[in-house]
Amino acid sequence: MVTENGFLSTGIDSVVKTVGVPKGSFYHYFTNKEAFGLAVLAAYKRYFAQKLDKHLLNTALPPLARIDDFVLSAGLGMARFNFTRGCLVGNLLQESPLLPDTFADVLKATLFDWQTRIVRCLQEAIDKDEIKDMRPACELAITFWTGWEGAVMRAKLFRSTEPLDDFWAFFKRALQPNI
């Protein structure tokens, strides 16, 4: 629900109705909507870390092909839900000025975690001479995630994987400035 409607637009009543539990049960587990949102974000962070590791740590593929695999998988996942769902973190980033302050630190830590995971893959690509770009892998990772979140938003808007594919194709070309 939160990936489709946003956190601020998702009411507790609709959550308990969807999962089929009494409202009192919600408050047994969560003190308030903020606690619920932080729990959802923590679960998503774990889920997405596993998704990234599945692709980025697959040493059967060269490093950039692992990112290709992630991009393909993400696009298929969005298409499976008719582009109504995007990235929970991206959605929350858009809502962040209106969210409780506790969300900002968790969102920053989540982005840093993702950056760290892709840095390893990009550094391996640099070490294996797949990347000709002279910028540090950490800078490339920040640029990747900044562009990726924008591509995810556009994919939702246009209901197409094309923005994801276009972003990744552009990013890969940018890694090869001498070619």
Mind explaining what this structure looks like?
The chain is mostly helical. It has a single domain, classed as Orthogonal Bundle (Tetracycline Repressor, domain 2). Helices cover 73% and strands 0% of the residues. The chain has 9 helices and no strands. The longest helix has 26 residues, at 102-127. The relative contact order is 0.12. The model has no long low-confidence stretch (mean pLDDT 92).
Number of E-state strands = 0
What coarse outline follows from CA principal-axis ratios?
A: elongated
| Major pleated sheet | none
Query: What fraction, in percent, of the residue positions are helical?
Result: over 70%
Q: How large is the share of residues in beta strands?
A: under 5%
* CATH H-tier superfamily: Tetracycline Repressor, domain 2
The separation of the N and C termini measures 44 Å
Total discrete domains: 1
CATH top-level class: Mainly Alpha
Low-confidence stretches: none
In the CATH hierarchy, the architecture is Orthogonal Bundle
Task: Tell me the quaternary state.
Answer: single chain
- The overall pLDDT average reads 92
Structural class: mainly alpha
Number of helices: 9
**CATH topology name:** Tetracycline Repressor, domain 2
Give the C-alpha Rg.
18 Å
Secondary-structure element series: HHHHHHHHH
